[in-house]
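Deliverable D2.4 — example input (structure tokens):
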């Protein structure tokens, strides 16, 4: 897979994550377990970006916080499904899985930080 450069525009970064999750899922072996896990991973992996866009268009502080909490929850869920999918022990696919898991963990930290800063500013 390709070298990933850090993107500091969070809308773009979450969109790239969703694209990477999609492309990763297309490389996974098909089996009964992955047939269940892959749709879950695709949904969870695309959710942080969609919810972050919604948070930026929120109608108030409570709405914003709820959307950011959803972003954080879905990032955690993405890491969970990434843990469960079966890669078939292909080194390239396993490397991408680890990279995606790290990105999901970083999103959790970023969204937690956003929530903390928002609460401090109240």
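Example output (designed residues):
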């Amino acid at each position: 897979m390709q070298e990933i450069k850090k993107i500091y525009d969070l809308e773009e970064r979450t969109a790239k994550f969703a694209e990477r999750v999609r492309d990763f899922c297309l490389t996974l072996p098909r089996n009964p377990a992955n047939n269940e896990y892959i749709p879950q991973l695709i949904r969870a992996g695309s959710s942080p970006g969609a919810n972050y866009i919604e948070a930026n268009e929120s109608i108030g502080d409570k709405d914003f916080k709820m959307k950011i909490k959803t972003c954080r929850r879905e990032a955690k869920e993405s890491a969970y499904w990434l843990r469960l999918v079966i890669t078939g022990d292909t080194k390239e696919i396993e490397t991408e899985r680890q990279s995606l898991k790290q990105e999901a963990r970083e999103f959790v930290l970023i969204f937690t930080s956003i929530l903390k800063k928002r609460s401090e500013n109240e």
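The radius of gyration is 15 Å.
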